[in-house]
Every structure is written in C-alpha cells, then in structure tokens.
Amino acid sequence: MERRTLLLCGLLALTGCGSAAPTRRPGVGSARAGDRIAGLADVPTGSGALVDLPGDGQLLLVRSADGVRAFNPACPHQGTVVDPPAAGVITCPTHRSAFDPQTGAVLSGPSPKGLAEVPVRVSGEDVLLA
Ligand code: FES
C-alpha cells in the first residue's frame, strides 16, 4: 500500500468519514406510509418536536388538543430547518419567518409560502406516516 493511501485511510478512520450515519433531509425521505415516526410521548402537547424518520427524512410534529400534525421543516424561503413551536409560533432561525403551528401558514417574514403539511395519523401511542 502506498504511503499516500495509508495516510488517507488513517485520516478517514480518525474523522469517521465513510461511516454509515444517514444524512437527514427535511421531509419524508425514504419513509413509507404506515412507518412509525414517533411516540405520542415524544411530542409535547402545545408544542412539538423535530423527529428523524426511518431512513433519512426529518419532520416537524406539532401536537395540540386536536391531535398531531406534521410539516416538512424546510423553510420555503431558503430551506433552513425551522424550530419547533415556542410561544405559539414556529420560527425559522435564519431570517425569522414565523409560521402558524396549526396550519403551517406564514404569519410574518420573507417566506413566500407556508410549511408543507405531511399527512400523519395516531394509532394508540404511536404517530404513523399516513
Ligand atoms: S431561510 Fe427561513 S426565513 Fe429565510
């Protein structure tokens, strides 16, 4: 083995490059209908949580007295992953667009449209992709 190849292999081993950890993408990714995406206990009532889906996707789940809704957390302005609701508003940390946690609609800021809703359903204590 050449010295250059040996050094590269050693560097990859030290940095963890080439590991199998999936890269998360906002949205459903490779998850399929019926996949369990969270437990109800993982989604605080009156707030929400970013959840990693089976595969490589990521969704924002929002829980209210009416149930659980899911949104693609990619801000429609420039794609930043938005923060879970706080004080009744979903906020994008980059340019501060604000979204309604019940509908995903834009409340203020530069986003040209609201967050895209993703259908989910609750089954017992689980939240499933619909
Ligand atoms: S990326 Fe979200 S408001 Fe600009």
Automatic annotation (TrEMBL):
Provide the Rieske domain boundaries: 35-129
Superkingdom of the source?
Answer: Bacteria
Any signal peptide, and if so, which residues?
1-20
Stored PROSITE patterns: PROKAR_LIPOPROTEIN, RIESKE
Cite a single GO MF annotation: 2 iron, 2 sulfur cluster binding
Signal: is it a keyword of this entry? yes
* TM helices/strands, residue ranges: none
**Coiled-coil region list:** none
The record's Pfam families line, in alphabetical order, gives:
Rieske (PF00355)
Classification via InterPro entries:
Rieske_2Fe-2S (IPR017941), Rieske_2Fe-2S_sf (IPR036922)
Q: What is the protein named?
A: Nitrite reductase/ring-hydroxylating ferredoxin subunit
Keywords assigned: 2Fe-2S, Iron, Iron-sulfur, Metal-binding, Signal
